[in-house]
Design brief:
Elements lengths: L7 H4 L6 H7 L7 E5 L2 H8 L4 H11 L7 E5 L2 H10 L4 E5 L5 H13 L5 E5 L2 H9 L1 H7 L2 E4 L5 H23 L3 E5 L3 H24 L9 H4 L5 E5 L2 H11 L3 E7 L2 E3 L2 E3 L2 H12 L5 E5 L4 H7 L3 E4 L5 H12 L5 E4 L5 E5 L2 H10 L2 H9 L2 H8 L3 H8 L9 H20 L3 E3 L11 E4 L5 H16 L2 H4 L5 E2 L3 E4 L1 H10 L3 H6 L3 H10 L4 H13 L4 E7 L15 E4 L6 H17 L4 H10 L8 E7 L3 E3 L2 E3 L2 E6 L15 E6 L3 H4 L5 E3 L11 H6 L4 E6 L7 H4 L5 E5 H6 L8 E4 L4 E3 L7 E3 L3 H4 L6 H16 L3 E8 L7 E9 L19 E6 L5 E3 L4 E5 L9 H18 L3 E6 L21 E7 L13 H8 L3 E5 L7 E2 L1 H5 L2 E5 L3 E5 L5 E5 ...
Helix pairs in contact: 6-8, 9-10, 10-15, 12-13, 16-20, 18-19, 25-27, 26-27
Length: about 1000
């Protein structure tokens, strides 16, 4: 059956976000500038070669990471040659002592390249006088003349002037970008004003966007694109045209007093222009600037501010106007008379103040478009547009209007944060709508997966797909890897890391060390809010990667977080973080790094702090159901297909499932399909569960390890808690049937029949849907861990704890095409995992089943570990055969090896024995790591017609080592191992 593929494109909410808008802004960028200057003039500007460094410095200082490239030409001939080979956005011609040649160069370039943007740079008022006499020629060729004022910022102003002029129409349409109009005809003054204005506007914008109170997702370089455009014009007509076309985007006008109007100098042009601005929209802030102090009175008459051009504090006055009148500073709430009554620095404060200010003040700000201007200055384009479009026009609905705007802001804040990574703040940490972050650097593999889940849930309409089961992530905070680096540097731990491989010594050194002070402070703030049990999880850079998942290699610690002494709670959390850091250098981790041929020194560790899903029941804290689901099933049966996936679930904490213990397995697409008999189900049913022991006061995670805070409880405990309902059936021996009625006496079978067979909770279809969409979203098969909280039986919640890519080999070997002599087949198996052909293995390790004792499986694991160490030293690989489930935490269902105990095993066989379960380790960390390392993994059931092991042939081989439970034999010639991944079959053939 081919699974129905859900079309993600129809479900993914693709409303145009601010980030999308930012990406579209400023389509024209000045990237290439040609500077034409003779050697002397070029030297004067460059000042002994410092020009490029200074210009780049100016750009970097303003967070403009891409400065234009300058190319120099000494004369017209050289310039034209360069222009034939390369496109230049601006050509700047320097007029020095020789003024005639630059004019001729301008004319010739314009004739050959009429579309080129030509500008001229002069160095004195005398130069300007000369060019005024040749105004007709200059105006026909040159867009603008600028005066060299000794600073490279004039070049920045020239580039930004052209960018703003060209991008004005598009950016105001796409992003509703604001506009500052500068009207000035004096080259000297606008050459001084423009660098000052651009520097100030960009600096103010930078200060705002560095305060990332809602999200750190948008980079400064993108938000800077939404800064106000500064449009320079020099005549009354050009200014009026800008006002008429862009008055809805105009946030300020800075005007000289005298400039051309109707083709002649007009001493009243500036005053009349401001008067016209006020007629169009009296709320637009205006600034009149003049070298005549007497014009101050005229500015007051037209409700404009005034600046004296020759003032020593000109820069400060410009800065004040931009900061306080154009919306860049704190929002100052005023009454209708203009008196301040409060202020807001953040959007949250802004929202709160809007709720309480007098209604007259609200009307004053709303009708003056001050609210939207302030939001726009912060790059919040979408909400600024909505606020601006709702002007107060009916005094009877003032409170309703105010309430609407406040709710609009509240919705915006929630939506802005949802699904994102938010810098840690104490007041927002207690939410599962986003991931909070402490420190910088990568979030590691698991952290990245959780951030993806959060973002995916926020943007995909899962409610439409899974209407009856809400999906969420637990409240999550990630400590970035920069804190790990700071921890090592702060305590000078590199020395011990490079001089010893003793994991215990490293762990003790980490425990004695102090976390960085800022991290300690934030952990205290975190615990001041979070009062429930916590999972402190590893999130290494390499963890859950596509090539090497590192599943279960690093540590996870569960802390009850219920000590009455706050300092004890803080100390335990700090210890857990340090132990996670130390797990990078554990024996298991080092063995894994050696196995995959990577350097442990390249690993860095982030840490996930996650609220534990569940509730407390009589001193025990646990979720009702935990599980693992995979979108690819390596062991399908009946009519199931590999792509249908599978899930493994159990009662209590997920340590039970990932530890490979007895749990319920099913296919989410066919949850009712179950071939096991009732007796098999009883035999393999869950008999105990794990929970956080909330009553134990003397636990120590430093010595007790990951299980120190957990209790192992019999199933009767979970029934007393009332949590076996919906999760178990009862075997009625009298009638030899099962029932979901727990009042019936009999053996409990944890089969989740009410949920899977009778659809009491839509867990199976929810998992099927999620595996489908995540498989598409990640572009590969996936594995996800989850927990189900049934406390509210009418509205349970499915929590996604982790997601990672599932490694699956491609097919390349077809056993049927191999010409195999049946007499030479040592082993044959099916329904396994593995692909390829191995021809170098001569060694086989197998458990002596004649003397097998299921109570001695821990001893068996220890013996295998010793042999593996010897094989590692010799550099030899081997085939491993043994009873039951490899890598299980339950010693009565198989051999409880850790994967690091069998690193040289390239083929692993699970052997079935009478009355000993053979159930593959699907969903366990052990299984995930072994398969990801391309190890063959096959079962040989008891009395199978298609699978067998020739122990008689093994007994004839040379015995290398024999322990109490394990035999190691070596063949004289290498074996041939054939693994057909497509048909899931394997054969091992002797020479």
């Amino acid at each position: 059956m081919t699974p129905h593929k859900i079309d993600l494109r129809k479900l993914y909410r693709r409303q145009k976000s601010d980030r999308d808008i930012f990406e579209e802004l400023m389509p024209f960028k000045v990237k290439e500038i040609l500077l034409i200057a003779n050697y002397y003039d070029a030297y004067t500007i460059e000042r002994e070669g410092q020009f490029s460094e200074k210009l780049i410095g100016e750009y970097l200082q303003l967070n403009l990471y891409s400065a234009p490239r300058f190319t120099s030409a000494a004369n017209e001939e050289e310039a034209l040659d360069l222009m034939r080979k390369r496109r230049f956005d601006i050509v700047i011609i320097v007029a020095g002592l020789d003024k005639e040649t630059p004019l001729e160069t301008c004319r010739h370039i314009k004739e050959k390249y009429p579309a080129v943007h030509l500008m001229m740079l002069v160095s004195s008022n005398a130069d300007l006088t000369y060019f005024d006499k040749n105004a007709d020629l200059v105006n026909s060729c040159v867009e603008r003349i600028f005066m060299w004022n000794g600073t490279t910022r004039v070049f920045l102003a020239m580039a930004k002037y052209l960018e703003d002029k060209i991008n004005l129409k598009a950016d105001t349409k796409v992003g509703d970008v604001r506009v500052v109009l500068l009207v000035e005809d004096s080259v000297k003054y606008y050459s001084r004003y423009l660098p000052m204005l651009y520097t100030e506007v960009m600096t103010q914008t930078q200060e705002l966007i560095n305060d990332r109170t809602l999200s750190d997702e948008l980079t400064p370089i993108l938000k800077l694109r939404a800064r106000p455009k500064i449009i320079l014009v020099s005549t009354y007509e050009d200014a009026a045209n800008i006002i008429n076309r862009y008055h809805k985007n105009l946030i300020g006008v800075i005007s000289d007093v005298e400039y051309p109007h109707d083709g002649a100098p007009d001493p009243n042009a500036g005053v009349n222009l401001i008067r016209y601005v006020k007629e169009v929209d009296w709320k637009i802030p205006c600034l009149l600037q003049s070298h005549d102090a007497g014009n101050h009175r005229r500015a007051t008459e037209v409700q404009a501010e005034f600046i004296h051009k020759t003032s020593d504090t000109l820069a400060l006055e410009i800065q004040h106007f931009i900061k306080h009148r154009l919306g860049f500073g704190d929002f100052i709430f005023r009454d209708p008379s203009g008196q301040p009554i409060g202020k807001a620095s953040t959007i949250e404060e802004f929202r709160d103040m809007l709720s309480v200010i007098p209604v007259e003040s609200y009307v004053y700000h709303a009708n003056n478009h001050m609210l939207s201007t302030w939001l726009m200055a912060r790059g919040e384009i979408s909400i600024a547009k909505k606020v601006r479009s709702h002007a107060v026009d009916d005094t009877r609905t003032l409170e309703g209007h105010r309430h609407y705007i406040v709710n609009l802001l509240q919705t915006f804040i929630r939506k802005k944060m949802k699904g994102r990574i938010i810098p840690f703040r104490k007041d927002i940490v207690n939410s599962n709508s986003y991931v909070t972050r402490i420190g910088g650097g990568s979030m590691g593999g698991k952290g990245r997966g959780l951030a993806f889940l959060s973002n995916f849930i926020a943007h995909v309409n899962l409610q439409k797909l899974i209407p009856d089961l809400p999906v969420a992530i637990p409240k999550t905070t990630v400590i970035g890897v920069d804190e790990y680096d700071s921890f090592l540097e702060h305590n000078d731990l590199y020395q011990i890391l490079y001089t010893t491989k003793n994991a215990e010594k490293i762990k003790q050194a980490f425990l004695k060390a102090d976390l960085p002070p800022k991290l300690k402070t934030k952990l205290r703030d975190y615990l001041d809010v979070m009062k429930t049990p916590l999972a402190v999880r590893s999130s290494g850079l390499f963890e859950d990667s596509l090539n090497q998942p590192f599943a279960g290699v690093y540590a996870t610690y569960i802390i009850p977080n219920n000590n009455a002494d706050f300092e004890q709670r803080v100390a335990e959390l700090e210890k857990a973080v340090k132990l996670v850091y130390a797990s990078v250098y554990s024996d298991t981790s080092l063995a894994y790094f050696n196995a995959i041929d990577c350097r442990v020194q390249d690993e860095k560790m982030a840490v996930i702090l996650q609220e534990l899903v569940g509730r407390e029941y009589r001193g025990k804290f646990y979720p009702n159901i935990s599980g693992v689901a995979q979108s690819y099933n390596f062991y399908p049966f009946s009519y199931m297909q590999p792509g249908d996936g599978f899930a493994v679930i159990a009662l209590g904490l997920g340590a039970y499932v990932v530890g490979g213990e007895k749990a319920w397995r099913f296919c989410p697409r066919y949850p009712k399909l179950q071939l096991a008999s009732i007796h098999d189900q009883m035999r393999d049913s869950q008999r105990y569960f794990y929970a956080v022991d909330m009553l134990k006061k003397d636990h120590d995670i430093g010595t007790g390890g990951e299980m120190a805070t957990l209790g192992k409880y019999p199933l009767e405990e979970i029934e007393r808690d009332g949590n076996l309902r919906f999760c178990a059936s009862v075997y009625d021996r009298v009638n030899e049937i099962t029932t979901t009625d727990l009042s019936v006496r009999g053996t409990r079978i944890v089969d989740f029949s009410a949920i899977l067979q009778y659809d009491h909770i839509p867990l199976a279809p929810a998992l099927d849907t999620l595996l489908n969409v995540f498989n598409q979203a990640m572009g590969s098969p996936v594995e996800m861990e989850f927990a189900l909280d049934l406390h509210d039986a009418k509205r349970p919640t499915l929590y996604l704890l982790q997601i990672k890519p599932l490694i699956r080999n491609e097919y390349s070997v077809d056993i049927e095409e191999e010409h195999i002599d049946p007499a030479r087949v040592l082993l044959q198996a099916c329904k396994g995992v593995g692909n390829g052909k191995l021809t170098h293995i001569s060694d086989v390790l197998f458990v002596d089943t004649a003397a097998f004792d299921r109570t001695k499986t821990e001893e068996i694991a220890g013996e295998i570990k010793q042999i593996n160490e010897k094989m590692t030293a010799e550099g030899r690989d081997y085939i491993l055969i043994g009873p039951g489930r490899w890598g299980t935490r339950d010693k009565f269902t198989g051999v409880p090896v850790d994967w690091s105990d069998i690193t040289r095993a390239k083929v692993i066989i699970e052997q079935g024995l009478p009355d000993f379960p053979l159930d593959a380790s699907l969903g366990s960390h052990f299984f995930h790591n072994v398969t990801s390392m391309h190890v063959g993994y096959f079962p040989v059931p008891q009395e199978s017609a298609t699978a067998f092991i020739r122990f008689d042939v093994l007994a004839q081989q040379a015995l290398v080592t024999q322990t109490k439970h394990v035999k190691h034999v070596r063949f004289a010639a290498p074996l041939t191992v054939l693994m057909d991944g497509k048909k899931q079959t394997m054969a091992i053939v002797t020479e």
